[in-house]
Design goal:
This protein has about 190 residues and is an alpha/beta fold. The chain has a six-stranded mixed β-sheet, sandwiched between helices. Strand 2 and strand 3 form a beta hairpin. Helix 1 crosses helix 4, helix 4 packs antiparallel against helix 5 and helix 4 packs across helix 6.
Amino acid sequence: MKKNIEIRIAGFGGQGIIMAGYIIGKAAAIYDNKHSTLIQSFGPEARGSSCSAQVIISETQILYPYLIRPDISILLSRDSYEKFNGELKDGGIMLIEKDLVQLQEHSKNISIYDIPATRLAEEMGRKIVTNIIMVGFFAACTQITSYEASKKAVESSVPPGTEALNLKAFETGFEYGNKLLAEPQKSRLKA
């Protein structure tokens, strides 16, 4: 792993953006024995307004907790895509919510992976687990946090009594990502 991996997670309030960032950082720091930081930003309205989380993961101590140029963007809404898609590093990875983000032309060489996370969550009967599906998808597509660490972070972070549902959501995202990666011609939507 290179020195710092910078991750931007963005969407709108109510999608669990901050929780997703927290879980990814926790997976890295607590269960994968790496270093991580989390910075969050959201509008005063909270639900429905713009929301983002900045996560940095490193093998070494992190001296500056803010993103300079993200290696990975996880974008769950059209507005977040329009606001943040240009900041991704050349060669970076973009994970998008397939049903809510409409892709545009990119001048950079980036890899884009999409998942209908909201639809999959609705099929599970709980739209609220969209963020956990994205955490599983992130773990599969990037392998920055291990499967076991990510799973433990989900289980130890969600409200008591919701562990089974959230672990199922994590598995759904992880399996979707693995299937996508197994079909390289379909998985990498080079922009």
